[in-house]
Amino acid sequence: MRLYIDSANLTQIERINEYYPISGVTTNPSILVKEKKHYTQSLQEIRKIIGEEKELFIQVIADSASEIVEEAEYFQELIPGKNIIKIPVTQEGIKAIKQLTSKNIPTLATTIYTPFQALIAANAGAKYVAPYVNRIDDLSGDGIRVVSDIIHLFTIHKISTEVLAASFKNVNQVYQACLSGAHSVTVAPEIIEKLIAFPATQRDVKVFQSQWNEAYGNEIGKEW
Is the pLDDT of residue 187 over 60? Predict the structure, then answer.
């Protein structure tokens, strides 16, 4: 299971990338707009932080397939490194995924709400599909079930496309997505930091330190 940062905030990305085993960063138009700077500047600065070997996901905003392909090629030229182009699963989006696949430009099919959307996108050549777990739940659906069903379909039909589960509001949703077989998850920085947070861990560390200091002081590696 791979972990991605779902953010365009440079301070958060730098911190999470330093401390956690991150495979890359996912962005979308809403996330980029929040940073109140030109999107190309944000993307270039993110790339500097994570390096060229980690994946950076960039979403197109064009509607027609021809414009989506043009936009994807623009980003590939502008931003160095391993870029994945995020494309919504509209009819034009599926057409663009097919065209970009023929050009060896990797894509992620986004705004996935149903297993069939994921299956069509995968057959079109998408490298990743991104089911929206919490947004599905908000529509009275079952986001984790959708993730599980997509995994099941891909397994039955021997499809190599990977599921990158997205849209989480808490740690339990991330946990359940991983249990369901998601190949990777993209998570907001504040939730990533909660993945290892547990009060008993900090309590135990303090007890260990206290007992050690009482017996040996705070020096390690010297003769007593």
Answer: yes
Indicate the DSSP class of residue 40.
Answer: H
Where do the domains of the chain lie? 2-197
Cα separation, 126 vs 163, whole angstroms: 10
* Amino acid, res. 68: I
Q: Which of 36, 37, 48, 86 is catalytic?
A: 86
The whole-number pLDDT of residue 124 equals 98
CATH of domain 2-197: 3.20.20.70
**Which tokens in the block code for residue 129?**
């599909």
* Segment 64-70 long-range contacts (CB within 8 Å, at least 24 positions apart): 64/92, 65/92, 65/93, 65/95, 65/96, 65/99, 68/92, 68/93, 68/96, 68/100, 69/96, 69/99, 69/100, 69/103
Active site residue 86: yes
pLDDT at res. 217: 81
Query: For 102-123, what is each residue's pLDDT tens digit?
Result: 999 999 999 999 999 999 999 9
